[in-house]
Specification:
Blueprint (H helix, E strand, L loop, with lengths): L11 E8 L5 H8 L4 E8 L6 H7 L3 H10 L4 E4 L12 H13 L3 E3 H11 L4 E6 L3 H13 L3 E7 L5 H5 L3 H12 L7 E4 L10 H8 L3 E3 H13 L17
Length: 246
């Protein structure tokens, strides 16, 4: 009797670099990819989402990308928002280039993917919600404003523990966005930040309620990395972003 496991026809391999305590990026990415694209992960040590911890974590990024390159992945995504904007504008692009060289494959970093997604949606004035502490919110605001966006508001939960962030769900994201931005009729988009914040499932309901595009860290990263990988697939993700050409 055959013991082979049929995983279907593999048409592509996606490499995902995640913080070790992140429990959301992999299942959200897997949920919206067709079965013929396989997901392969590498982890970087992180327990607390603080400036110092994120800075230390980035030291593991190139090694993680190199190891994913051994799996002959078609592209690599660095799935950490604040970890890819920590040192301000330009750091995200430098990180992508470092990972590209290490993996010998196209690479994206979440912070840069978010910028690309907002630009593709022609967004200028945005609202941001996060699970982060005030110091990381300030860094995110600075990064987004330096990238050319008018940040109308930024609201954070004040959490440092990444496992606590991972315990949040789409209902939390939905309510946080409504509490922060409902009634602001002059927004072009809303951004729900953090790859460990389970928020993709809230996108369609939020867009229906607010009437503007809503993007999340994992949504932007997935949309972007599938584009650079050149996957010829029907990526039927939630919301306005996934209606755009990659």
């Amino acid at each position: 009797m055959s013991t082979d496991i049929d995983i279907g026809d593999v048409r592509g391999r996606l490499g995902l670099i995640v913080p070790s305590s992140n429990t959301t990026a992999e299942p959200e990415v897997r949920r919206w990819l067709p079965d013929e694209i396989t997901v392969h992960s590498a982890r970087m040590a992180l327990e607390s989402v603080t400036v110092d911890a994120l800075d230390a974590m980035s030291d593991d990024a190139a090694r993680a990308a190199e190891l994913l390159g051994h799996a002959d992945v078609d592209a690599v995504a660095y799935a950490c928002t604040t970890g890819s904007l920590l040192h301000g504008p330009g750091f995200d692009a430098e990180l992508e280039e470092r990972l590209r060289k290490a993996a010998d494959a196209p690479a994206v970093a979440t912070a840069r993917s978010v910028v690309r997604a907002l630009e593709a949606l022609d967004a200028e004035r945005i609202a941001v919600v996060t699970p982060y502490t005030a110091d990381l919110d300030a860094k995110e605001r600075d990064f987004l404003e330096a990238s050319g966006f008018d940040v109308a508001s930024i609201d954070g939960w004040g959490l440092e523990s990444n496992t606590a962030i991972g315990a949040l769900d789409a209902d939390d994201a939905f309510q946080q966005v409504l509490d922060d931005v409902d009634g602001d009729d002059d927004l072009d988009a809303v951004f729900v930040s953090c790859t460990n914040y389970r928020s993709l499932a809230a996108v369609e309901a939020l867009e229906a309620k607010l009437g503007v595009p809503v993007i999340t860290s994992n949504g932007a990263t997935l949309w972007d990395v599938c584009g650079v990988a050149g996957f010829e697939i029907d990526l039927d993700g939630p919301g306005a972003l996934f209606e755009l050409e990659r």
